[in-house]
């Protein structure tokens, strides 16, 4: 038995012992929030995360949900059952004064803006989001900060042990990874007595496990697009129907400008549910009655997210009878696209500072490190990659060198799930990268020492083969761009796995050189060449420069005056890069 498996078995054994010692009825009466932290040895944070990872099946969860789509009510009833087993009732969630937000792109940024605005009012905020960048506890935040390892560990074991008490003959005692974390977030927020909770939907809306929330204060829908098609549908209209599933009778909801088709679906969905739905005016309309607004998140697309966040925050303050509410400049909303336009108001100083001070790692984030500039954006849909490309090219234009020094442009990319990586890569080609680098979403070849980065749903061989397919797509696109005659002889499927440590494509004058590395750290080692002042590994893998492309490229990178690296395609990839480039995020 391996060390990791032995540790996991020990942890599970300890959890079972603790569970048998609990009094189920008493725990249910008190609620988990009243439980003390377990004192058994070996139950520190990493052990809690390793045990959580045994429930970690985002891929399996999606398959399960797809099988259950014909009976969505059963899914929500199952989540309510787990909530009751944990010692809470659905009505208890009403005390959290929830802001519920869905969308295809920008919902996390919208939540981050909204939380920061309301925190500026002196309110104690809870924020539940997904996925995490570096540590899983980032998903559950109090006043903008991830909960401590101690608090995470305490609540994890309380919830895990309580649910173990209900193990039945089918041994189905535990919800899946995301459901478990959703339940845990509710318990944390209730114990910490937050004034409000901003809750980001996981996938979709109607069937998402967060949709057991019955009485949010306000709901929001950010920009819609194509994603998770096997689960949500293959058109934006079908996806809009899923997103509109979070609407509740009598609860105000806001959305941004959408294409006519999905907007009509949202409007009809709101009417069927008796939900008052409003269309957000653009940020420019609010600036016209006030002053220009500065955003903490870069990119033109963030203005739409900020406009939605302002309406959500304003509505929450109004419905909670808060004293400092902006004066409305349009008292009777106008109608546009058969939807009432949300009122225009002058943002308060708290709102202005909130927008300016918002930080949301891995989204249009820039790290300047000596000659290296890292551009990090977890865009993973066609529309979000388009926005990413626009932001990246604008950022390059602002940083253009005037001294004539040599510059190297690198793409670091990965894509997972059922996303069309060829379509995403095609959107990135106009950036004219010198090198395209592909790697899986793992920081090291072995992640035993870091439970936060473990993924049990796929093998290393599987993710490397996926990276080789990305490389083949990229090379085919480059060949098509260079000569249409070459396209017919190019296959999108790799002929074979090649080296699992490094799978380069020979450099040719008509296309970007491409490389595949076995993990993020090896990719960053090659890209940075020891020139990043913070990312300074002690040694290089012996075979890192075996291929001529890697070897010649290393010489170019060591001599370049500036190296620009765009990291995109997956939030998990961006998170792995941040873990290595910003060690503080692992503290």
Give structural notes.
This is Folylpolyglutamate synthase. Keywords: ATP-binding, Cytoplasm, Ligase, Magnesium, Membrane, Metal-binding, Mitochondrion, Mitochondrion inner membrane, Nucleotide-binding, One-carbon metabolism, Phosphoprotein, Signal, Transit peptide. It catalyses: (6S)-5,6,7,8-tetrahydrofolyl-(gamma-L-Glu)(n) + L-glutamate + ATP = (6S)-5,6,7,8-tetrahydrofolyl-(gamma-L-Glu)(n+1) + ADP + phosphate + H(+). 42% of the residues lie in helices and 11% in strands. With 587 residues, it is of the alpha/beta class. The protein has three domains: 41-52 and 72-91 and 124-194, no CATH class; 97-106 and 200-360, Mur-like, catalytic domain (UDP-N-acetylmuramoyl-L-alanine:D-glutamate ligase, 3-Layer(aba) Sandwich), CATH 3.40.1190.10; 365-482 and 510-585, Protein-Tyrosine Phosphatase, Chain A. Helix 7 crosses helix 8. The radius of gyration is 24 Å and the shape is globular. The model is unreliable at 1-42, 485-489 and 491-510 (pLDDT under 50).
């Amino acid at each position: 038995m391996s060390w990791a498996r032995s540790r996991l078995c020990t942890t599970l054994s300890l959890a079972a012992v603790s569970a048998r010692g609990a009094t189920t009825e008493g725990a249910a009466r008190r609620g988990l929030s009243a439980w003390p932290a377990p004192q058994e040895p070996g139950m520190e944070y990493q052990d809690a995360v390793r045990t959580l990872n045994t429930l970690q099946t985002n891929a399996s969860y999606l398959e399960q949900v797809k099988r259950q789509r014909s009976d969505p009510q059963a899914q929500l009833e199952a989540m309510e059952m787990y909530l009751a087993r944990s010692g809470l009732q659905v009505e208890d969630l009403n005390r959290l004064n929830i802001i519920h937000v869905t969308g295809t792109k920008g919902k996390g940024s919208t939540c981050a803006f909204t939380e920061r605005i309301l925190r500026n009012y002196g309110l104690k905020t809870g924020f539940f989001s997904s996925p995490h960048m570096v540590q899983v506890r980032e998903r559950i935040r109090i006043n903008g900060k991830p909960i401590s390892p101690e608090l995470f560990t305490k609540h994890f074991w309380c919830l895990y042990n309580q649910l173990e008490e209900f193990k039945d003959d089918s041994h189905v005692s535990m919800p899946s990874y995301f459901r478990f974390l959703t339940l845990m977030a509710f318990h944390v927020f209730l114990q910490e007595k937050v004034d409000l909770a901003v809750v980001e939907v996981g996938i979709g809306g109607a069937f998402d496990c967060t949709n057991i929330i019955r009485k949010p204060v306000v709901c929001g829908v950010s920009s819609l697009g194509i994603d998770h098609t096997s689960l949500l549908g293959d058109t934006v209209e079908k996806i809009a129907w899923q997103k509109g599933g979070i609407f509740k009778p009598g609860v105000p909801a806001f959305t941004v400008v959408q294409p006519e088709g999905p907007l009509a679906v949202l409007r009809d969905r709101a009417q069927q549910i008796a939900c008052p739905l409003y269309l957000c005016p653009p940020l420019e309309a609010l600036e016209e009655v006030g002053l220009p607004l500065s955003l903490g998140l870069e990119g033109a697309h963030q203005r739409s997210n900020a406009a939605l966040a302002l309406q959500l925050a304003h509505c929450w303050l109004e419905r909670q009878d808060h004293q400092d509410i902006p004066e409305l400049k349009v008292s009777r909303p106008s109608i546009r696209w058969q939807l009432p336009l949300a009122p225009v108001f002058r943002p308060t100083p708290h709102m202005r500072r909130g927008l300016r001070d918002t930080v949301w790692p891995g989204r249009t984030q820039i790290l300047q490190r000596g000659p290296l500039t890292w551009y990090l954006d977890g865009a993973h849909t066609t529309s979000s990659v388009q926005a990413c490309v626009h932001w990246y090219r604008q950022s390059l234009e602002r940083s253009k060198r005037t001294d004539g020094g040599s510059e190297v442009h690198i793409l670091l990319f990965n894509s997972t799930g059922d996303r069309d990586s060829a379509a995403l890569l095609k959107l990135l080609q106009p950036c004219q990268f010198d090198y395209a680098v592909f790697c899986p979403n793992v920081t090291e070849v072995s992640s035993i020492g870091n439970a936060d980065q473990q993924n049990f749903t796929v093998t290393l061989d599987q993710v490397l083969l996926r990276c080789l397919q990305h490389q083949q797509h990229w090379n085919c696109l480059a060949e098509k761009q260079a000569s249409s005659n070459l396209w017919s002889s190019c296959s999108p499927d790799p002929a074979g796995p090649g080296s699992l440590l490094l799978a380069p494509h020979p450099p040719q004058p008509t296309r970007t050189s491409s490389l595949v590395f076995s993990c993020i750290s090896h990719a960053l080692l090659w890209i940075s060449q020891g020139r990043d002042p913070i990312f300074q590994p002690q040694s290089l893998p012996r075979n890192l420069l075996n291929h001529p492309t890697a070897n010649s490229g290393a010489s170019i990178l060591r001599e370049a005056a500036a190296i620009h690296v765009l990291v995109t395609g997956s939030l998990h990839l961006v998170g792995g890069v941040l873990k290595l480039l910003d060690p503080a995020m692992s503290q």
